[in-house]
Amino acid sequence: MFATPAFAQTVAGASAGGMQAMLIQVAPLIGLFALFYFLMIRPQQKRMKDHQNMLAALKRNDVVVLPSGVIGKVVRVEDAEVGVEIAQGVTVKVVKGMITSVRTRSESAANDAKA
User: Fold this and answer.
1) Rounded CA separation 70/85 (Å)
2) What structural domains does the chain harbor?
3) Nearest to 92 by CA among 72, 112, 65
4) Whole-model pTM?
């Protein structure tokens, strides 16, 4: 009385429809992964590569900025550490990976002129 009639599908129709239905369910997940890759993963890898290249090119007399905001001049470069002079006669050892940025000579000269 309340039952509706059920119709059986053929085997060929079920496999073709099942594959298409599975593809429709998986497509949004693939799209989300591609979106995350291009908006988050790829830019982070590029930033990390640029930072590694900056650290590899670090040399004596470069002006660097530390994460705390301290600005100093590189006096010694080692494998994992860098000697940074933060004031005349005051040299601190800094882990090389913690250097935030290297300033160019024109940037440091402009900032010294303002102070």
Assistant:
1) 10
2) 1-57 (no CATH), 60-114 (2.30.30)
3) 72
4) 0.67
